[in-house]
Design a protein that fits this description.
- By secondary structure, the chain is mainly α.
- It contains nine helices and no strands.
- It has helices at 2-34, 37-54, 60-77, 81-101, 117-141, 147-165, 171-188, 192-213, 218-221.
- The chain starts with a helix and ends with a helix.
Length: 223
């Protein structure tokens, strides 16, 4: 009897797993059909941006500019207003980042470097304060379904984007946390294609962190 009971439980578990996989495949297929061309193009260019940024290619900022402009439209349509505004900021930062990475004869080239923990702590404090402020206005004046998470992701991303533009190594640590939270947020808002993009981001962020670590000066590795 115990063996039969175990076999039944195992068969039931296997059946449940197969059913879950089939349901997920059906949902992803439906999400693909519902995904607009603007979101798809924005996602493709976003991946191109990250791949180029890992290689420290200045062309990453061109991909970021176009992708961000497209996502202003996508996020506004999903009623993620702070994220829509964030992508407008991304477009502006793409111009700033391009100019920062561009070789100029009057200054030394920008290299990968680290910031001390105290600067990141101060930044986190400022982000929490700004998120609380924008949470109040979003909750009071907009139908945003997730005002605090939307605000935290937005202000954290503003800071992390600045770190990329300045080639600060710890940007990868910030982005890993931000993108993990964003992935859940996009699944909740049924932006499945963008959620898959952010799942890919988490993998590429690990790659980027290792690549940029190799560009740090020897003295920074010990810190």
């Amino acid at each position: 009897m115990p063996r039969r009971s175990f076999a039944r439980r195992r068969a039931h578990t296997l059946h449940s797993l197969v059913s879950s996989v089939e349901a997920l495949a059906t949902q992803l297929a439906a999400a693909w059909r519902e995904t607009g061309r603007v979101e798809i193009l924005g996602a493709v260019l976003a991946v191109a941006y990250l791949l180029l940024a890992i290689r420290q290619s200045i062309l990453c900022w061109a991909a970021a500019f176009v992708s961000s402009c497209l996502y202003v439209y996508v996020m506004f349509g999903a009623r993620l207003y702070m994220e829509s505004a964030l992508n407008g900021f991304y477009a502006a930062m793409a111009v700033y980042g391009f100019r920062q990475w561009q070789a100029q004869p009057e200054r030394a080239p920008l290299r990968v470097h680290r910031w001390p923990p105290v600067r990141h702590g101060a930044a986190l404090t400022a982000i929490l304060a700004l998120a609380a402020l924008s949470w109040y206005f979003l909750r009071r004046y907009t139908p945003s379904p997730s005002p605090f998470l939307d605000s935290m992701v937005t202000w954290s991303s503003v800071f992390a984007t600045y770190l990329v533009a300045r080639k600060v190594y710890e940007n990868w640590h910030w982005w890993f946390v931000i993108d993990a939270v964003s992935l859940g947020l996009y699944v909740w808002r049924h932006l499945y294609f963008t959620a898959l993009l952010f799942a890919l981001y988490l993998v590429l962020i690990v790659v980027g962190e290792r690549e940029w670590r190799g560009s740090l000066p020897d003295s920074a590795h010990a810190s």
